[in-house]
Amino acid sequence: MKIDAYVVEGINEPFVREELELDNPGPGEALVRVVATGVCHTDLNTQSGDMPLPLPGVFGHEGSGIVEAVGEGVTDIKPGDHVIMGWAFCGECRNCVRGEHRYCLNIGAELLAGIRLHGPDAGTSAYSRTDGSSVSGHFFGQSSFATYSLTRANALVKVDEDIDLNLLGPLACGITTGAGAVLNTAQPGPGESVVIIGTGAVGLAAIMAARNTPATTIIAMDLQDSRLELAREFGATHTVNTRDKNIVDAVNEICSGPADYVIDCTGNIKVIEQAADAVGLMGTFILVGGAPAEARFSLDHMRTLFGKTVVGTLGGSSNSRTLIPALIELYRQGRFPFDRLVKFYGFDDLDQAIADAHEGGTIKAVLQVSS
């Protein structure tokens, strides 16, 4: 079938909208009409070459939509279902069997190979140009910068039809990444302290999640006062503009010592190395933000040796079908107001959405693809 999609021809090349051909769903696959898709920094990092999707390719990985057709063997998803497209995973490795789909042992290929990895058409892309040349798709299992997406059915999360699909796409990645870093990775106990550095969509989602835990000290840090004001509204008990104050000094002052949990949402190596020192004995430093490819950081050996945990978390850990429904229910209850982060753009306005996000005026840009 013919679809409209944004294609990136090469590293640092622009997003160009063009007509492509998309295959019908094969075994285990589903065709989804994309209603909306979030714009994430991971898309832009891939455009700049920091993530190795073969190019030319179709990006987009925060899609929501309506199932149009399903392939052979798909029984739990049917045409007409409203869905969020979660991350792809193999479903067979030991981590997938344990329910930790974010840590699928084949995750690199599942997200970035640009081709089908399963079924009779494995090794080929379902996306091609009108001249027959192949285009990488299947980005994070979905390539949702398009009017239609071919996805693995096991990655889909069904949602109730009374919830606006335009709003739900960011739950596929960015919002769940921040929330899951708190709810799945940190899991703070009564009276503990959580520091979130970087208050973009991921960091603000982490703050909303922290408010739903027994943590009593929630510290938000950023360079923008406007973001810090939002952080207060979403549950931060303290805010720090790191232009004015050193991270470690601020934490020690507020917590009367190091913090129990520090979550870095910036991916900035200088920030990471400083933030790690804000975690004390038996504390946990959680890496969330994506640094450039091949980035390295160093920690003080002795301070780390004394019971400090350093852990990375992908996509909020766990799996889409566990975490996403929980966040939707919290949203329904008024306890996770992620809708306040979203600004909508038309499908023609991808460049404007990216520009607004770079300038800080938009926290989470969402493209409305179809009605």
Automatic annotation (TrEMBL):
Keyword Metal-binding among UniProt keywords: yes
Residue span, Enoyl reductase (ER) domain: 10-367
Keyword terms, alphabetized: Metal-binding, Oxidoreductase, Zinc
Entries under InterPro entries matching the protein: ADH-like_C, ADH-like_N, ADH_Zn_CS, ER, GroES-like_sf, NAD(P)-bd_dom_sf
Record SMART domains: PKS_ER
Pfam families cross-referenced by the UniProt entry: ADH_N, ADH_zinc_N
Top-level taxonomic group: Bacteria
Cofactor: Zn(2+)
Family: Belongs to the zinc-containing alcohol dehydrogenase family.
Stated name of the protein: Alcohol dehydrogenase
